[in-house]
Amino acid sequence: MQQQTRASAKVQPYLFFDGRCEEALEFYKTALGAEVEMMMRFRDSPAPAQPGMCAPGSENKIMHCCFRIGTAQVMASDGRAQGKPVFQGFALSLSAKDEADADRVFNALADGGQVQMPLAKTFFSPRFGMVADRFGVGWMVIALPPEAAEESSEFVISRVFDAPRELVWKCFTETQHLQHWWGPKGFKVIAAKLDLRVGGTYHYGLKAPDGTRMWGKFTYREIVPRQRLVFISSFSDKAGGTLRHPLHKDWPLEMLSVFSFEDAPGGRTKFTVRWQPHNATPAERQTFDAGRDSMRQGWSGTMDQLAAYLAKNV
Q1: What span, in angstroms and rounded, lies between the C-alpha atoms of 125 and 116?
Q2: Number of H helices, E strands in the chain
Q3: Burial of 101 per CB tally in 10 Å (0-12, 13-18, 19+)
Q4: pLDDT-based confidence at residue 248 (cuts at 50, 70, 90)
Q5: CATH second-level architecture of 155-313?
Q6: pTM above 0.85?
């Protein structure tokens, strides 16, 4: 039991902006490219706030939200909405992909804030600096060494589905569901064989709108029921052998895929995909990094199909 707790535990920062949360979200969108994944105002809460929990007239303030910066998820709230946010005793560490990116991010965070340690070369990084932004949140900006940046590429996309986590989990772990929605938008499942266990596989066939057929395979490495699936994904042949991408010879032969499932307010489910090359060559990593727009488009279409399927089955 202790071992499973260690595997599934998750620690995330939760910031209380005391009435300035929406302003902070807009700032982080501009400065850091933050993406707001969900937001609930006090007026939208299914239960009224307890007396004294927030200032009068705070109905439009943010009770809870989640936003993503790169691959990291941060939660935030207006809290008691007293207008006096205080952030002490901690800092958020932000890894920039190179020196130019570190300069850009640091300067954006310093706008209206206070530089605590100017960006400079250190023994552990080509660029490192510390700054408190205009809300008082402390940041440590570090430029990754080239070799570390090369290994850090990861594609992340999330969607909140209007369905309970149990059902969303089943849609990924039972063929009776998978065969009705899995694949890029417009594709149809023509074959599905699932052996859901560590070391087991999901082998499937898809038919494209133009009639082209292709095959894929998952090999499971970790399964935490209703929380997490980790597997190696690849293109395959009809017999289950591993193949190259039919259209891109330098696409990674294998991908490390992590699917996570979390409860969201209102009985909904937040689903997140984390995708990165596995045992990839430099050319494969370069192809992966260049394909992020197409990956986002493809995964968005797949999630659209799941949303439509869930709408018929909730």
Answers
A1: 17
A2: 8, 16
A3: middle
A4: confident
A5: 2-Layer Sandwich (3.30)
A6: no
CATH code of domain 88-145: 3.30.720.110
Over residues 71-83, mean pLDDT? 87
Span 144-166, mean pLDDT?
A: 79
Q: 7-16, 42-51, 153-162: which has the highest mean pLDDT?
A: 153-162
118 neighbors 166 (Cβ within 8 angstroms): no
The pLDDT value recorded for residue 11 is 82
Q: Which residues are CB-contacts of 129 (< 8 A; sequence separation ≥ 6)?
A: 102, 106, 115, 117, 118, 119, 120, 140, 141
Domains 9-86 and 88-145 share a fold: no
Per domain, the residue ranges of the chain are: 9-86, 88-145, 155-313
Give me the helix-helix angle, 292-313 and 165-173, nearest 10°: 110
Burial call 171-197: b when 16+ CB within 10 Å, e when fewer? bbbebebbbbbbbbeebebeebebebe
Residue whose structure tokens are 């007293």: 82
* Residue 277 CB-density burial (10 A; 0-12 exposed, 13-18 middle, 19+ buried): buried
Class of the 9-86 domain?
alpha beta
Quick check: 203 pLDDT over 60?
yes
State the DSSP H helix or E strand holding residue 131, giving kind and residue range, or none if neither.
strand 128-132
Pair of tokens at residue 311 = 């709408």
